Amino acid sequence: MRRGRDGTTLFSARAAVLLAATTACAIAAHLAGCTNDPFDPSTVLNSRPVARIFVTPYPGGELSPTSYYERTFHWSGSDEDGFVIEYYVSIETATGVAAPWAATQRTDTTMTFTTDDLGEAQALIRVACRDDDGAVSDTVSQFIPLRNFPPVINFTADYDTVTWSYGAANFRFFALDLDGNVTMDDSVVYFLDTADTNLAPALLGEPDADPNLRPVIKRLDDVDAGLFSVDLRHIQEAGSRTLNVRIGDEAHATTNFSWTWNVLPALSPVLLVDDILGNIDVPFYHGSMDSIFGAGQWSRYDLSAGLPDRTWVMLETFRQFEAVFWYTGISTSANLGAVAVELQRYLYEPPPDHEPGRLLLISKGVIGGTLSLPPSFVQNTLGISRTPSQPTFYIPQDKTCFAAPPGRLPDLHFSNGFSAGIGLTPMANSEAIYQMEYYLFWSPSRRPPYEPVVGVRKPHADIETYARSVVITLQFEYVNQADGLAALRALLQDELGVTLP
Question: Whole-model pTM?
Answer without folding.
Answer: 0.79
